[in-house]
Amino acid sequence: MSWTLLPGVLGLLSSAAVLVVVGPRLARTADTLAERTGLGDAVAGALLLGAVTSLPGIVTTVTGALEGDAAFALANPVGGVAVQTVWLAIADLVYRRANLEHAAASLENVMQALILVALLAVPVVAYATPEIVWGWIHPATLLIPALYGYGLVLLRRMHAEPMWKPTATADTRTDEETAEGGDPRTVPPQDRPTATTTRGPRAGCG
Predict the structure, then answer these.
(1) Helix/strand/coil (H, E, C) string of 90-108?
(2) What are 164-181's pLDDT values in tens digits?
(3) What does the pLDDT look like over 146-205, one tens digit per residue?
(4) Which residue from 2, 27, 49, 119 has the least number of CB within 10 angstroms?
């Protein structure tokens, strides 16, 4: 099926409108599931929201690969990461209480950033090393999903047994406050969590 420019633009705008309407409900549902399952916001965001919001990109990438368009299949996910990074900066501007990295300070978010860096480094290393092919598959292709799965295991483990806790301030929002829709600035100073730092047996930072 081949669309002309006008139907394509209308279809894109309609899809964007649906996402704008459904997006907040999806975020609230994921937050509720995170609270009930004990996954935590960071793990639920990476596993639930990440999977759902990535479905259009996954379909587009797989379709491009099946049709033999290797450049399109590669450019779509890489470009998606770049655009999402831009939206992260915009979200930081919109969230006026504090910097996002301060308000969402957690070991899980730090680990997610490290996992992303590691995943992006795999194809770069594969490109710079001698060509190794098993049939038609490069070993790095199998390493990427395995690395992501191991990263999810680490996120779940860190949520259950954190090796350190970030210092709490008036602008820090915990999972419980986020689920209840409360504003940490409305909590009296005497009832706010004290700034504590704990170290696990293998922790290397405080």
Answers:
(1) HHHHHCCCCCHHHHCCCHH
(2) 766 677 766 665 555 555
(3) 998 888 888 878 777 777 766 677 766 665 555 555 544 444 444 444 444 444 444 444
(4) 2
In terms of Cβ atoms closer than 10 Å to its own Cβ (0-12, 13-18, 19+), residue 18 is exposed
Amino acid at position 24, single letter = P
Burial of 144 (0-12, 13-18, 19+ CB in 10 A): middle
Helix (H, G, I), strand (E, B) or coil at 170: coil
DSSP secondary-structure letter at 161?
A: S
Q: Please provide residue 40's backbone torsions phi and psi, each rounded to the nearest 5 degrees.
A: 90, 155
Per the rule left: phi > 0, alpha: psi between -120 and 50, beta: everything else, 38 is left
Say if residues 167 and 195 touch (Cβ distance below 8 Å): yes
Q: The whole model's pTM is what?
A: 0.59
Residues 83-95: b if buried by 16+ CB within 10 A, e if exposed: eeeeeeeeeeeee
For the purposes of burial, counting CB atoms within 10 Å of the CB of 159, is it exposed (0-12), middle (13-18) or buried (19 or more)? Answer: buried
Return d(Cα 49, Cα 23) in angstroms, integer: 10
- DSSP lists the bridge partners of residue 134 as 137
Residue 60 CA, chain-centre distance (Å), reads 19
* Number of alpha carbons in the 13 Å side-chain half-sphere of residue 50: 13
Q: Within a 13 Å sphere around the CA of 158, how many CA atoms are in the beta-carbon half?
A: 21
